[in-house]
Amino acid sequence: VFRVIEPDAQIDAIANGEIDAMDIGPDVNKFNRAKEAKGVDLRLAGGPNFRHLTINGTSPNLQDVRVRRALAMAISRQAIARAMLAPLGIKAEPLGNHIFMANQAGYQDNAGDVGTYNPERAKQLLDEAGWRMDGTVRRKDGRPLEIVAIIPSGVATSKQETELMQNMLAQVGVKLIISTVPSPDFFSNYITPGQFDFTVFSWMGTPYPMSSAKSLYAMPRRNASGEMDIQQNYARIGTPAIDQLFDATNRELDRAKAVTMANEADRQIWEEVHSLTLYQRPELAATR
After folding, report:
1. What are the tens digits of pLDDT across the range 251-277?
2. Digit-coded pLDDT (tens) for 224-251
3. How far apart are CA 76 and CA 116, in angstroms?
4. For the chain, how long is the longest CA-to-CA vector?
5. 41-55 vs 198-204, strand pairing mode
6. Res 282: pLDDT
7. Distance between CA 110 and CA 142 in Å, rounded?
8. Which residues have C-beta within 8 Å of that of residue 64, sequence separation ≥ 6?
9. Cα torsion 73, 69, 101, 201: sign
């Protein structure tokens, strides 16, 4: 029997014996509560799941790839991974691949300059894009560089991650506004229709990373009724070259060649600054 329970209320439910299992993920508060709860076991594995920052490439302030690249360089993925994973006793390393997890065959770090924390270079790129410092905030044509991060209510992990980003971006003159919305409305009213600039959540992967990843990064196209079909590409960023690489990868029967093409697709996803992979999300469950 599955029950619908607000994320932050689930730990109380298992501690009180109301449910038999729950997903803890990278939430240290739930982890510590579960460790102390009587009659509760913790199960840990390196799952195919990851936390990420998705960047809406159709937002007016984020259409310029130089701005997306600058914001990426202003965010320390290492610091976020350390804050979220170290309290769980898990080695804190940022994830450098959108397709393969660190414990999957084929993984390599393709993050390059985009995924490297470099606030000074971030400032230069923002200057080049016309966003100049005005006091403590950057402006262009009189508009401040403000980014709205939409997160769901009741998810402490999302709150902590975006608050860390908020402090980092402030150091390069970018104001990050965190907007918390009701969990049931998060995807339907905000993420799917593109009513956000930034968002963070988890992608749950599969044992077949090359084929299952395509819908996350495929270039949005208009369907027969004229509506934009984004599949699961909430960033709305893509290129024909990336699509061709995924198609070729999924046709290729030689695994070594397929892995090489998949990593080239990932390298191009980083270059487009589609999203920032933050860290591999532990498969961490509490059970009675």
Report:
1. 999 999 999 999 999 999 999 999 999
2. 888 889 999 999 999 999 999 999 999 9
3. 7
4. 60
5. antiparallel
6. 87
7. 37
8. 129
9. positive
